[in-house]
Records
---
Amino acid sequence: MDLLSLLSTVATVSTILLFLTGVQICRQIKDQGNTKNIPIFPFLSMCVSATFWLKYGILKGDSVIMFVNSTGMTLGMVYLVVYYVYSTSKEHVYKMLAYAGLIVFPVLLYIKMVVPDKETSLSHLGFVCSVGTILMYGSPLVSVSQVVRNKSTEYLSFPLCLANFLVSGMWFIYGRMVDDLVMQIPNFIGSLLGLIQVSLFALYPSGAARKYDMSGTGSII
């Protein structure tokens, strides 16, 4: 197995394991019998981001990107079904799904029917994918002000922040090896954001964390 194949395999497995952190949230939903205090956004953003990256992988003909994100999209849909079943506000779920649809379908229609050639499609869709990935990797930073104010990282998940750092780093290296800037730029930024998140645990060590910010579970390559 050459270095590229080894790296793509490790990055793929790591990313899928990151996707599977949603199982923990679904178990929490099932145990408490409702979705109280658990946002739908991580699952929804996971589906949206994976859908865009899957389309990018199809256009590019990259089987690694296609496999990872078809898995992510499928898991995201399963998580959304669980969320819907236990939600006490079905109207809110419908509204959030509608918002997601208003993002996904216009972009896909634009790529399919408006953009004149494949290279332009890859460029435009790649920009959308990049922005989404950066937002996903940086989403746990929303809790930074709370961390600094309380001088505690109890609201951050160290395993999740570390996983974001490692996974984004691996996909950055993969992007370098296949000479794909669309993969390099967001994952380089993602690795820096992950490093910032991990460093918070050195600055503000915490005991047993009880309330995790799981908003980064939608991280995609």
Note: Confidence is low (pLDDT under 50) at residues 208-215.
---
Amino acid sequence: MTDLLTFGSVCSGKSRTGRPAIDLLGQRFGRLLVVERVENDKRVDRPTWRCACDCGSEVTLHGGALRSGRNKSCGCFRRDRAGHLYRKHGLSKTPAYTMFYDARKRAQRFGVPFDITPDDILIPKHCPVLGIELNTGPREAAASLDRVRPEAGYTKGNIRVVSFRANRLKSDATPAELRLVLDYMEGRR
């Protein structure tokens, strides 16, 4: 009988029902591969196994949980499946979608028009205003969504991506106000 185990002091080779313990070593259950029998601290009559998951992690489970099909992974399968359930389009981690999502929230908060999609947001390599290379994160060179005419809201043809610094300098100033500031800075006022 090669499929039976006898473990002496660890286990008499019998399960709690009196049946012989089943050797699961080397068997695969879903994403789990049984690699070792381990001592069960709580119940000596319940065979416990260390399993390697395909994702690289390890988990310790009772033989019954493996054989019944209750456990087929370390939990990575559930995380993978749940991740797909909550993603509608696969764009949620892209910079364009983040800008789209944030702009939509601002439009709702401030009551400005909004009719753009993530595809309308084109991120250039360099800021068209300052010429600096755009990057991600909360820095001066971070890509920022600009409304050409703020009162027109986030609408097609009224948005462009510039650096955070350029957008902050522009803020909601009119061209006439920016000329006044420039004249002041150059000492003409």
Note: Confidence is low (pLDDT under 50) at residues 1-12.
---
Amino acid sequence: MTPRAADRARYDRATAHLDAPVAIVDLEAFDANADDLVRRAGGKPIRVASKSVRCRALLERVLARPGFAGIMSFTLDESLWLARAGFEDVL
């Protein structure tokens, strides 16, 4: 079984009791991707595009990591929603 197929089987087992549709995030992969972005940024702060991460908990998670600073929001409504949720650096 390929690593991707093994991951898919693991996700299927973990969500078998839930009704579809279901969205899941592999937090190990999420954190590894964040680490890779920081490495490639070479010390420059990374502003997260909220269009790519539409989950407040994930935005909080990535912004708590060194190397990330602020959110680039997609719309004014989203900017206001993020500000009301406590995010302070919203573009």
Note: The beta strands are 46-49, 68-72.
---
Amino acid sequence: MEESKTNCDFCGKNYLNSTAEDAFGRLEHSLSYTAANTFKYDRWHTLIVSRNHDTLHLTEDEIGDMFKLAQEWFQKVYSIESMYTCPEMIWDAMPKSGASQVHTHLQVSLGYDIYYGNIERIRQGARLYAQMNNGKNYFNDYVYVHQALGLTISIGNVRIIIHLTPIKDLEVMILGERLEKDFYKALNLIFRVFVDDLNEFSFSLGMHLPPM
């Protein structure tokens, strides 16, 4: 990890010269900042970069700060082009997961009225479920089934779910109504279990928020 800090594009003040800004400029917090993605997969796609190089030893505050900055970026983009409404985030940690840089960073994008892949499939499925079941909320029922089987952990209003239909091994789901302190606490807990207890040093996270 220490070796990878040498000549890191994101460390210290290097990012000011080695990364581009979005069309509306760069957003910065004390613990994170934005950097325009060189290889965009959508019109609005950027990086949220932590000021902590070491992904495996982030604090809860550092995790929360990245997600708060992501929400600010979504709002900024939406204020410019309100037809882009579907916020998503991807976090590939360490090269084995597909990360191009060791330094901690999220990929965030705001899609045009539709999410990508499995997330959009779940959203459409939830709508159909409500139509076929007198308006019942798919996600509430999903949580209820897993609670009945003892497969959830509650942190405030957030649920950590060891769910029944994972796509990959060691898959964990977090459901919450909004990004706030309990969500960051749950995410930090999962990371610490992966790194400290399971010795899993590479992982991927995918997340979507409700439409703007």
Note: The chain has five helices and eight strands.
